[in-house]
Design goal:
Layout (H helix, E strand, L loop, with lengths): L8 E8 L2 E9 L20 H6 L16
Length: 69
């Protein structure tokens, strides 16, 4: 950063047909999410759904974590 502070960042890459592409990136920060949106800063990787969010297929369009299934 301009003030000399280092921040953590996460990057996800995909490889298809021998081509590597940058798929997703986030830096840590304390920016609140917009109304109706999930936070976009680097997630906590301790939970499965955050790991799925880092994959190109993600968790699908109709999946969201619930208290019970």
């Amino acid at each position: 950063m301009d003030d000399g502070i280092d921040t953590a960042a996460m990057n996800v890459f995909t490889r298809r047909d021998g081509t590597i592409r940058h798929f997703w990136a986030a830096e840590t920060g304390f920016v609140p999410a917009d109304p109706g949106e999930d936070p976009t800063t680097a997630p906590d990787l301790m939970v499965l759904w955050n790991v799925l969010d880092l994959t190109p297929g993600g968790r699908g369009t109709d999946w969201y974590p619930k208290i019970s299934y």
